[in-house]
Amino acid sequence: MKPTFYITTPIYYPSGKLHIGNSYTTVLCDTINRYKQLRGFDTRYLTGMDEHGQKIETVSKEQNKSPQDHVDFLASETKKLWDLLDIKYDDFIRTTEPRHEQVVEQIFEQLLKQDDIYLGHYEGYYCMSDEAFFTETQLDEGNLCPDCGRKTELVKEESYFLRLTKYQDRLLKFIDDNPDFIRPVTRKNEVVAFIKQGLIDLSVSRTSFTWGVKVKSNPKHVVYVWIDALSNYISALGYKSDNTDLYEKYWNGDEVVHVVGKDILRFHAIYWPIMLMALDIPLNFKLYAHGWYVMKDGKMSKSKGNVVYPDPLIEKYGLDPLRYYLLKELPYSGDGVFTPENFIARINYDLANDFGNLVNRTISMTNKYFDGELHKPSQNYFEFDKILQDKIKDTVSVYTTEMDNLAVSKAIQNLWTLVSRTNKYIDETCPWILAKDDSKKEELNSVLYHLVESLRHIGILLKPILLDASKELFTQLNIPTDLQTWESLEFGSIENLKVIDKPTPIFPRLDKEEEEEYIKNMISGKKEEVIEEVFASIEDFDKLEFVVGEILECKKHPNADKLLVSKINTKDKVRQVVSGIAGSYTPEEMIGKKVIVVKNLKPVELRGVLSEGMILAGKRRKNYEVIEVSSLLPGDKVS
Ligand code: MSP
Which CATH superfamily does the domain covering 540-638 fall into? Predict the structure, then answer.
């Protein structure tokens, strides 16, 4: 049976558009999850939304919406973003779902019955933004929240409390006995120091608002949002439900990892383990708390106008460069600074130059000297061969250690030392000189074989990180699927191969000044980014005329690679339509299709060619799929 692996992100507050910082955790977990799949684990990846609490109640009131409508909209926006980032999650839990609420209700009642939760009075300060309680001494001057600097409110109300004090010593012992329970070690030290100061029982209910899970036995109280939120990690597996199979399989399985940002460490390293201890649930998870992406002028914030969002970066540069950047530039412990200069430098130096050129040179030389065909050499010819082979082996081993330790940035850094080493091998063996001597054919074949084998290893290790580029690399090198697996990571696995005739650059080099400028403008242009649902009225919709059209002719646009020009019969006439779908369809594939056309769009010239309408198509990442009909005829109305 395969070993199991269960990984979770924090569940996100529906507080607006997610930026590259929030997205980082989700990309990181996706990468680790894909790595575990590559290693043959039976994996489960959970993410979701934290949809209760005072802040959501307040914000939705301000927007004249019900809290449920508000969170429904933001949950769907978040899912769209994860699709854009190609996040392969297995479940998306929302704390407003009945499957979750009933678990929280039961957990609370059980702890109450056991006397791990008791009724008392709370007097202290509450930060609505962080949904966290503080004592007066913990606050910054002016009663400001010590975490986010916002104003706190003095709360005096009847409240239930969780007995943290009862479990304090047991938790300290657990941390001591399990050295890698909290990583990195600096975060563990912070937690231990905090507990040693002495815990106080935690207020776990509120009576001043209603948007939350009601305490079953005393419904004027709603459960504190963190107790509610933390329970998602097991409610999503069916804990205390009719079907606990997933819970048994993954929670009680081989590995469970919670990945969180440094700001929510305390909740996961103290409250959550104590809840589990009180519930008598095995404490078998590991916690990794990463640092933050910040800007040169400090934290990303809407008011500063320095927030970076993933969508426009993906739109302009593609997904792989963003994933690469995010995963590589945040150190294992500590924060990382996002700068446009560094973003472009990483694409140009690491991806286009070091990696991209290596692929290009390898394929071009293989074609030039051997018509694209290579075979496994029978021996080593140069001292550099063994050095490169050892380096490949060593890279796989370091990569494995780092990835197992969740240190993805270190794994990538190390992988790039193999990219450099392979580039250096070209300079050491000088294939262009070997090519001049007919008696050195075998040596030359061996050199190119070494390059391909190194790239094949790099491609396999890149699979969880660069999703498109790793596929593209295998396509260009023409590597069969059984040699793209973790099990095939052994030098010399290829017997014979034929690479494609002409390499296409996987990462084109960018114009430094132009692109840095573009990103700077993009960041500063987003000053007041608030997302709100935009509604179209039926009158808006009625303005557009949709009809069925049959494509009679189609050709490439003379001046633009991405455009196709179609002649379409829409019954009233044959109209010419320019569409940006050349990346997904050849002109021949379009001919004969019956598609849906927006007929009354104002005609425009696109790169010098008249376009009298638009073809409807769906888009998934870079691919378009035109919407086709079967039994309808040209001119039929679509509404
Ligand atoms: N809802 C809680 C988590 C509950 S988990 C049971 C929450 N949500 S959040 O939306 O505010 O934050 C989600 C995650 O995003 C946190 O891990 C936080 O650390 C992370 N980040 C927020 N800004 C970030 C950066 N600038 N950089 C990296 N991560 C950042 O907290």
Answer: Nucleic acid-binding proteins (2.40.50.140)
